[in-house]
């Protein structure tokens, strides 16, 4: 995947995430109550821990593997951050 296609994919994923997140929060009203704020807080904390581990692995991998493109690794981590947070928030909204 070329850098232009990667940029378009990342931009599209971000816009889709923002639209879905805004619509979900508006329809459910989850940001108005304490439960919704707590779910978002827990999902954010877990996502941050996962991203820190992924960034550490990415740094080590890019340093040791010459064929690995750092831009593509960071793009993958970005996509994991966006959709991982959404999945964590969905999970905790079901569990809590």
Write the SSE topology.
Blueprint (H helix, E strand, L loop, with lengths): L2 H26 L5 H31 L5 H26 L1
Write a concise keyword list for the protein shown above.
mainly alpha; flat; 3 helices; 96 residues; 86% helix
Please explain how this structure is put together:
The protein is mainly alpha-helical. It has helices at 3-28, 34-64, 70-95. The protein contains 3 helices and no strands. Helix 1 runs parallel beside helix 3 and helix 2 runs antiparallel to helix 3. The termini are far apart.
Can you summarize this structure?
With about 100 residues, this protein is mainly α. About 85% of the residues lie in helices and about 0% in strands. It is flat and about 50 Å long.
Biggest sheet features: none
Shape: flat
- Helix-strand makeup class: mainly alpha
Radius of gyration: 16 Å
Tally the helices. Answer: 3
